[in-house]
Write a structure and sequence with these properties.
Length: about 575
């Protein structure tokens, strides 16, 4: 029998669940856990500058590794600061366990210092939020927390620990060799449903496979590509599915949508007659007007969460299944039903539009156009680079122009879209995959939300590269053409020649022990990227390349949802020369 204190047992559970990295901010109400954590030789703790930053770092770590991210904080505002990160993880199905300290149970009803009902606050943005009131329940509560975070559609869990529970003198009998992580099953598809789905694919003239983030999470990219190649079906990943198929693959047909999309993908989609969605959500920025999106085409929806099927619109066939198991079952059914197919007119149509319905990215003018920045990124960095980006005009340009070739190599906070996410997510991604080059694509405004987390990477010698698309202009808000007559530039203090780039981002990086360089002309970008990679690795700190871009450049997004009906006839008659215009 192995008896130990309850907090020591909690740390043993974390170790046994595979935790190697944890983020957090120590505080009075969580110090007993930190004391036990200090004894661990397996778990490395990184003290972040803000609890929201800790959740985003844990998020980035989980996305690149597939493991459960862990973030720790004290009572009161520590937990409320985590809510944005919990929401982001919930929205994007990212497994995470957040641990908060709490005032002693005996004073929770007396308005004790920093006592807040964080469980009720976190409940809507977690798979499970729980306060442990009995020390003897700690071990199995944490076992259950990790099981829930991983099971089904992954997501975040919050465990709240009152101080008296952490301080309990109780010793528990715990030996991780005697038990282990709680098991769970991944749902497999019904054979009848798989046969029907395959029949629909074989009967269609212009079918599409549409993998979402669920394919990435399930590690099902190989099965996806193998099925597509065997049946010669084009693949259109959703934005969260970027990397599920290499973007230079002959069957890659681009990303459909009204923002992070390609023109040829939208045109091809409107010609399709069957869409097989796997682990996707039919998000509104993907579909636009549902009447046009659905059209006369049929839909199959495969998802691990039964509640997702039919949430946006009823599919012609719904299948509850883990993405990997479903794709494997479809592949095996295809082997038994039909010989390998040769590329037909539909595949040739994909090749035709992919090579003609393009946009320029070779601009040589100054100020730099954002499109040119992404051309440089695509040409300079190799297929093994991990890219991280968040939300804004720069992220929309990234979705339109940036190439991705491997799963878990393009990270974005898709549904929630919190500004500042990418800076701490880079920290988590680099710690999760230290052998990889991590590059964060940031906007000037987003960077300022959580830029303090750069100091964490500098302190712990975690190198990565940030590329800032700086128009100092709140570009996405302006592109929305909101009729409020506000002068955003003056409001932000960006007016006047003396402050053309807003605040001094290079100076901020250097003040935090990191590195920075500002670029004003397109021909300077490549050398600056080369410098940033070399200098970051040599100094073991983050390095920023700040590119001053044209203020008025808008991302060529699809029409607004109420006008998307006009999109189909326009695309049908759009000549290749016109498609290659310079927006």
């Amino acid at each position: 029998m192995a008896r130990m204190g309850v907090m020591d047992a909690v740390v043993k559970v974390l170790e046994d669940e595979g935790v190697e990295v944890a983020f957090g901010v120590p505080g009075a109400a969580i110090l007993p856990l930190y004391k036990a954590l200090s004894k661990s030789r397996r778990i490395r703790h990184y003290s972040v500058r803000h609890e929201e930053g800790g959740t985003h770092a844990a998020d980035g770590y989980a996305r690149v590794t597939g493991r459960v991210g862990v973030n720790i904080g004290t009572s009161g505002p520590a937990g409320t600061n985590m809510i944005t990160g919990l929401y982001t993880a919930m929205a994007d199905s990212i497994p995470m366990v957040c641990i908060t300290g709490q005032a002693p149970t005996g004073v929770l009803h007396k308005e004790a210092f920093q006592a807040v009902d964080i469980v009720e606050i976190a409940r809507p943005v977690t798979k499970w939020a729980v306060q442990v009131k009995e020390p003897a329940q700690l071990v199995w509560t944490f076992r259950e927390a990790f099981r829930i975070a991983r099971e089904g559609r992954p997501g975040p869990v919050l465990v709240d620990l009152p101080l008296d529970v952490q301080r309990s003198p109780l010793e528990v009998d715990f030996d991780p060799r005697r038990d282990g992580p709680l098991p769970f099953e991944r749902p497999a598809p019904g054979s009848g449903a798989i046969r029907e789905a395959l029949a629909m694919i074989l009967a269609a003239e212009r079918p599409i496979l549409m993998p979402g983030g669920g394919v990435i999470l399930a590690g099902a990219s190989e099965e996806l590509v193998e099925l597509a190649e065997y049946l010669q079906v084009p693949v259109s990943p959703t934005y969260m599915g970027k990397g599920a198929i290499p973007e230079d693959h002959p069957l890659y047909m681009g990303t459909v949508g009204i923002q992070t999309s390609q023109r040829y993908a939208n045109a091809l989609f409107l010609e399709s007659d069957l869409v097989v969605g796997i682990g996707n959500r039919w998000a509104e920025r993907h579909t636009g007007d549902l009447d046009v999106y659905r059209g006369n085409r049929k839909f199959v929806h495969i998802d691990i969460d039964p509640r997702q099927i039919g949430r946006v619109f009823p599919p012609d066939l719904g299948i509850v299944s883990d993405a990997k198991l479903a794709l494997r079952a479809l592949l095996e059914a295809a082997w038994a039903t039909t010989p390998p197919r040769e590329p037909g007119p539909w595949v040739r149509r994909v090749e035709e539009l992919r090579s003609t319905l393009l946009r320029r990215d070779d601009f040589d003018s100054a100020p730099v156009k954002p499109q040119r920045v992404f051309r440089e990124l695509n040409e300079f960095f190799d297929e093994d680079t991990i890219f991280v980006t968040a939300i804004g005009l720069y992220q929309i340009f990234s979705g339109q122009f940036q190439k991705t070739y491997r799963p878990r190599h393009y990270l974005c906070c898709g549904q929630a879209g919190p500004l500042g996410w990418e800076v701490p997510a880079c920290l988590g991604a680099k710690l999760g995959r230290p052998e990889k080059l991590v590059v964060g694509v940031v906007g000037d405004y987003s960077f300022q939300f959580l830029m303090e987390e750069v100091a964490v990477a500098a302190q712990y010698r975690v190198p990565y590269v940030l590329v800032m698309i700086n128009n100092a202009y709140m570009g996405l808000i302006r592109q929305g053409e909101l009729p409020y007559g506000m002068n955003f530039a003056v409001d932000l203090g960006y007016s006047g020649p003396e402050s053309e780039y807003g605040i001094d981002h290079v100076g901020i990086m250097e003040a935090m022990g990191a590195l920075g360089r500002r670029v004003r002309r397109p021909e300077e970008i490549r050398d600056a990227l080369r410098w940033a990679v070399r200098a970051s690795e040599e100094r073991r700190v983050p390095a920023l390349v700040e590119v001053m871009v044209e203020r008025e450049t808008n991302a060529a997004m699809g029409p607004s949802i109420d006008k998307i009906r006009e999109y189909e006839p326009v695309l049908d008659r759009l000549p290749a020369a016109q498609a290659a215009e310079g927006s």
